[in-house]
């Protein structure tokens, strides 16, 4: 379809002057958005910019204070999700709303049951409809498969099918690729293009710039509740989008400079660690992190990285091997002992390990130091000192919050992670363990955290960085260890490492290597 | 961004009023609804009584008597305070558990053991001067209650045994122990019915009216103490952190197992003290039938107060007042005192249905203005988390 032709089409959806205020913050400030039939329209913005609020308004989960919604040119009121569904608007949430023990067909039928008679479902008809729908959009799906046994990528397709089965014309996808592998992302993009070609309108929410450029027909950028720009992918690039999103120029890749490593701080020798079920997940790891360097651990999730990190910071006891810190044996020490030995940790799952969401931000900032001076005298908490420290930290790390006393759970993801980073980075550290420190964050927050980590490195801290994002590993690491099935299969020089080589090592553990060597020696 | 700018006084006053309403709206609606349900029950029961002239004002008569019996005279108020005392302490016990993510169903058993400890030791020191006898008997009761809390605490810490299961079982064991001791070694020889000796000088002095013993002051002091420990000390911070997110607490260097054990022990001590107050303050001796429903009512009190130490006082007063007024209601309106149990149970039922109430009466939750994360975790149950907002 030519651009001219597109312009002639009336918008399938128009949101006009949508304003939504929450106490202390205007989440949406007169936002205009129009989506044409057959268009993939990307909604781009940092965490907390107001994308989700806008979509909640569209889906009937939030009532706008001002503004109106037009469908095919007619003004409508959407009071609830069921209202939205009836009008052909459907949403695929970031966290899937599926019942794992039910089959694909049963999940799709939930809420939109195809009945043979008033009592029984017409499973046969439903099955064939589902198969047909799948075929139409380019994938074969078995309606009798249990959803729980499907991969994440396929579960997402079930979500999309569910929307299509309910005759959705406008489909909202909230960060659909956040949980997918690059391969799965490509596949889902094919499906989305097919949907658009059939005349469906798609609102694609993301903060991954390159994906947006690849998939979208049009891009609307939101910052702090306002539309700050609209772009066609052909006339923009990642830098431009990032600047629009953040409001200033952003370095997409950090300038990390050269490292000047000194003596070894962390030494791990012959480490074996079991998981909760008793499976040996770490099988004889040796590694060394020197002061002033970043050692990146690359690996596909589930190859023992979690257990390795937990053993190092004291959350899990290794059953063999030693961990030494500055020459002292710290194997099996408790988290508190490690903390007092100047070891800090930014956990991968900030909601589970990093923060207590129902506690005020100020309490979260002293979560590891609450018992020490100046935050406590004996067993007495010093509220004033805690408050003062919190206010200073909020200012220093630019944590966007109405005050230091609001609950951590009310902050956006990026600001939550900033709070964890602020707490962990504020002490003088020997070793810093970063476990997926930027997962799910927007470019502005990623830049911030990467810069802080480099600053720590240059101050002489030894940093162990674990990440499933290969780009992050390559960008940040001075040396890269590749972890595969509980072993470090290779250590490479960071700046010269080749992405493909690391990728293959991650996927195969370099299993072809011994064979290759055998050939050479033979 | 900084904290909100100081607003005009009238606006901040209105804001404070709204804040207060958001806190008490749900309990208030629950109480009102339970009174409505109680009225319906009274009216329906009138219909099924043969040869009874239907009197549609009977619910009002009954509630008037209930109110009069609880606050109608100085003595009525004293009666209410006496009934409130153990409920405050038991409520604190359950609330403390909730704060640490534990559901202390065992307040009843700990209450019984506390009373048992007080009577065993109280009888021994019955002839000593009160200034010595009372503290010793109180300490013994606290210790017994604490021990009854320590057991489920350590079991949970060591083996992960769920405290709901273990405390329920310990409730039965406490009842059985008391029955055995009171009709055995503790029985007054030659007495026709199983009853222990009197605690004599270990009994609490009466300071208000005919029966107002010092327990109410002990209970109020404990309210302050529990609040202070929870919110002003590092120990309390640990308890709340473990309750809100044990994983984060563990990573932050706290020891959830130790916290669990100590919190259950402290909760047991508080419930034990409730038993002490009833025994040394009211009954002065124990029969094998000793055992009110204080421990179970305490759960309702803690829920009604949303585990807030200070809110426990009005919640306990409500339940205590109903208990105290039930007698007069029975006399004046011929409504069985058990109606009070019905009212308390329906209050609890409506509290549990609070999401429904909120929708039906269009009430905003106290924290909804701040978005997610405002809920208090009550307990980590088998499947998921039970959360009361």
Overall pLDDT confidence of chain A: 85
Biggest sheet of chain B, strands in spatial order? 1-2
Which class of chain B in CATH terms?
Mainly Alpha
**Total number of helical segments of chain A?**
19
Strand order of the largest sheet of chain A: 6-7-8-3-9-10
Q: What is the name of the CATH architecture of chain B?
A: Orthogonal Bundle
CATH architecture of the largest domain in chain A: 3-Layer(aba) Sandwich
Strand segment tally of chain B:
4
Structure description:
The complex is a heterodimer of chains A (522) and B (389). With 522 residues, chain A is an alpha/beta fold. Chain A has 19 helices and 22 strands. In chain A, the strands form 5 sheets. Chain A has a 6-stranded mixed sheet with strand order 6-7-8-3-9-10, with helices on both faces. In chain A, β14 and β15 form a beta hairpin. In chain A, α15 (413-425) packs parallel to α16. In chain A, 47% of the residues are buried. The model of chain A is unreliable at 1-7 and 512-522 (pLDDT under 50). In chain B, α3 (74-99) crosses α11 (294-304), α4 packs across α11 and α5 runs antiparallel to α10. In chain B, a hairpin with a 4-residue loop joins β3 (376-380) and β4. Helices cover 68% and strands 4% of the residues of chain B. In chain B, the strands form 2 sheets. In chain B, strands 1-2 form a two-stranded antiparallel sheet. A two-stranded antiparallel ribbon of chain B has the order 3-4. Chain B is globular. By secondary structure, chain B is mainly α. Chain B has one domain: Orthogonal Bundle (ABC transporter involved in vitamin B12 uptake, BtuC). Chain B has 14 helices and 4 strands. Chains A and B meet through α11, α12 and β18 of A and α8 and α9 of B.
Could you give the topology of this structure?
The complex is a heterodimer of chains A (522) and B (389).
Chain A lengths: L2 H6 L4 E10 L2 E11 L4 E6 L5 H8 L7 E6 L2 E3 L4 H6 L2 E4 L11 H6 L13 H14 L15 H14 L4 E5 L7 H16 L3 E6 L2 H7 L2 E6 L2 E6 L6 H9 L17 E11 L5 E11 L3 E5 L6 H9 L6 E6 L2 E2 L5 H6 L2 E4 L3 H5 L6 H5 L10 E2 L2 E2 L1 H14 L16 H13 L5 E5 L7 H16 L3 E6 L2 H7 L2 E6 L2 E7 L5 H10 L3 H10 L1
Parallel strand pairs in A: 3-8, 3-9, 6-7, 7-8, 13-20, 13-21, 16-19, 19-20
Antiparallel strand pairs in A: 1-2, 1-4, 4-5, 9-10, 11-12, 11-14, 14-15, 17-18, 21-22
Helix pairs in contact in A: 15-16
Chain B lengths: L8 H40 L9 H14 L2 H26 L7 H18 L5 H30 L3 H20 L23 E3 L3 E2 L1 H18 L1 H11 L1 H6 L4 H28 L10 H11 L7 H22 L5 H14 L1 H7 L15 E5 L4 E4 L1
Antiparallel strand pairs in B: 1-2, 3-4
